[in-house]
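Hi R.,

As promised, here are both runs. First protein below:
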Amino acid sequence: MDTHEYINGDITIIWQPKKCIHSTVCVRMLPKVYNPKERPWIKAGNATVQELKNQIDQCPSGALSYKSNTEK
């Protein structure tokens, strides 16, 4: 499956566009990070790691997920 990764220091956001149902939960929760009119549309550096995790956990389709860059 086609995936895109966006890195913010300790976390990598993984976006799977084919899973996305365009519910706009991400845009409404963190508009400073998610802007579909810009490229790249995800600016992971515009929020804290905890803010990103909290938002991604609310993604209804599972199109957004994350992985830690600090765990071995």
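And here is the second one, sequence first, then its structure tokens:
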Amino acid sequence: MSTTSSSLVTTKWVAEHLNDLNLVLLDASWYMPGSERNPEQEWINCRIPGARFFDFDTKVKDPDAELPHMLPSPELFAQEVSKLGITNQNMIVVYDSHGLFSAPRVWWMFKAMGHKSVAVLDGGLPAWLEEQRPTETGEVIKPVTFHYEAKLLPEWVINADNLKLVLDDPDTVVLDARSAARFYGTQPEPRAGVRSGHMPNAKSLPFSQLIKDGHFLGLKQLESRFEAVSDSEQRLIFSCGSGVTACILALGAELTGRKLLTVYDGSWTEWGAALKYPVVR
């Protein structure tokens, strides 16, 4: 039975456990709007053997939210995860076709829903292909539906109104994963109607500063990145453009041993568009 205490696994680890019955691989590839790429079709064309496609953008999301790919209710999450043939006892490993981009979003979703064993593949599909490890192609047989139970752990997620209340809390720091140019408002936001700048007291930590060639930096380097913008005992709240790359920061912080980790799901798409939330430049 495959299991690991780390939230990050290597291609070697996955290769060694590929045939374990309790291992579930999820391709969580996602592309920015306008890319004209179809992640599900790309998964059909090339995937790690046995991998299932996890669509957090159009399926496993809150169908009533106006914002993109918002975390669904535990009931909907459980329903969709059950359709993927996943149980609460499975060891889940998530990867994406960038190397390290959207997979942490799904890691966070499972953590927020109380799943015990979930990790991200460092380097993702590009690292797997570079090492010439096996892949498969073609349509996939629909997995047998199992019963999955989800229970939201509220400490993992925060909404805008509650975030506004803690912006001045010295025990809390908001870390923004967008580029420094977007954070400081020198580069316009890609979404129409969204203001430029950042939240009062937020700090800039672009997700790209945690990654090199699709892999996380070494542990000491990760620790130094977080030590530069926060104290080890502070609660960290992560924000980005639409709640995807914020989860890279959450995973990176978890790898360094940080405990109080929360993702602002609406992120700048919500905050920057709503005039009732303060913005500074």
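A quick note on the second one: The first helix runs from residue 11 to 17. Let me know what you think.

Best,
J.
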